[in-house]
Amino acid sequence: MKKIKGGVTAPKGFAAMGLKAGIKKDKKDMAMIYSSTPCVAAGTFTTNQVKAAPVIWDRDTIYTSDYVHAVVCNSGVANACTGKIGMDYCEQMAEATAKALDIEKRQVLVASTGVIGAQLPMDKITKGIQLLAPTLDESLDGGHLAAEAIMTTDTIPKEIAFEFEIGGKTCTIGGMCKGSGMIHPNMCTMLGFIMTDVKISKSMLYEALSGDIKDTFNMISVDGDTSTNDTVLLLANGLADNPEITEKNEDYYKFVEALHAVNEFLAKKIAGDGEGATALFEVKIVNAESKEQAVTLAKSIVTSSLTKAAIYGHDANWGRILCAMGYSTAKFDPEKVDIYFESKAGKLKIVENGMATDYSEAKATKILSENEVTAIADVKMGDCTATAWGCDLTHEYVSINADYRS
């Protein structure tokens, strides 16, 4: 497996485009992805009880349709808490896309992101769809423009692609996502679109996606808020012409490995691009008694506001980490815990058996001043591990969200 240039248009048969439809001021705000052949599709969606209309549309479409052909997405308005009108607008988005691409309405998945409670400006949405369809581009540029068009408070577009081999055939998987705020580990808390030319059954595609979400998108947090619109869509058109994957064999696990690489890369990009963030904050729990214990501890640390603030201040305030572990509900012995900080600047043990080591504050500050920082907690109870990703908590986070609708 090797990383290659591109995103959603890297796999065979996929085209995409992003453009300005006038939903937002002077920014790209609509994107479309299209496969030249029908795709099997899988999706995972928000666990928030308040589900946006596109989540309901996509969930029902994936469950009831054998194949899908296209995804259309708008940025700026979430189409959440919009009642029957919002559902009608999803159908209208799908109908307009189907007409423009000469496909069936139920072969179109829709997504929206932005302000909750506002109705979609359907005149602009429809015009955007009419502009997108004839300009769809199979080049890497087409995918990049689409990645730019789904951004809200993101500071950078997020896309990645990998190439690998199955059954003697070269296969590709590529994805893009958006996410910066309203990010919390309760499913995936963002919009993610992953395309592959692998030939795989619908059931195995869902098995792969749902299994991997737990260790990637479900292990990130920026602010503890789970969105109403969280969606990850995975489409496979089979154009790599590999022997179809219909069971959990060697080919299946090669595909899962590539999918995991895409998901982890995108998840970390979201965490590192948290609203106002200056650093990606990674938390590793090692030598845990069980995977469940490790996950609980990692999530508790990465979501701790006090720990996140300490990371922003480059302050080795390890007491906040041990405190977050203590209220996590996971059982462990605090007097056996070792804690380390690590970054490009080095690695430093700051706690041994629950007590501070004679570490250098200057060295700790240097380590914590990098733009990617890792905290490692060794609980010495077994051989299980878990990793979570988040970011520091800055003054800028409050500024961004105080002015979000302005």
UniProtKB/TrEMBL annotation:
The record marks T113, G114 as: Involved in the stabilization of negative charge on the oxyanion by the formation of the oxyanion hole. It catalyses: N(2)-acetyl-L-ornithine + L-glutamate = N-acetyl-L-glutamate + L-ornithine; L-glutamate + acetyl-CoA = N-acetyl-L-glutamate + CoA + H(+). GO terms for biological process: L-arginine biosynthetic process; ornithine biosynthetic process. Keywords: Acyltransferase, Amino-acid biosynthesis, Arginine biosynthesis, Autocatalytic cleavage, Cytoplasm, Multifunctional enzyme, Transferase. Signal peptide: none annotated. Pfam families: ArgJ. One of its GO terms (molecular function) is L-glutamate N-acetyltransferase activity. The active site is at T189. Its EC number is 2.3.1.35, 2.3.1.1. The keyword Transport does not apply. It is found in: Cytoplasm. Gene3D superfamilies: arginine biosynthesis bifunctional protein suprefamily, ArgJ beta chain, C-terminal domain, L-amino peptidase D-ALA esterase/amidase. It is an enzyme of class 2 (transferase). Catalyzes two activities which are involved in the cyclic version of arginine biosynthesis: the synthesis of N-acetylglutamate from glutamate and acetyl-CoA as the acetyl donor, and of ornithine by transacetylation between N(2)-acetylornithine and glutamate. HAMAP family: ArgJ. Belongs to the ArgJ family. This is Arginine biosynthesis bifunctional protein ArgJ. The gene is argJ.
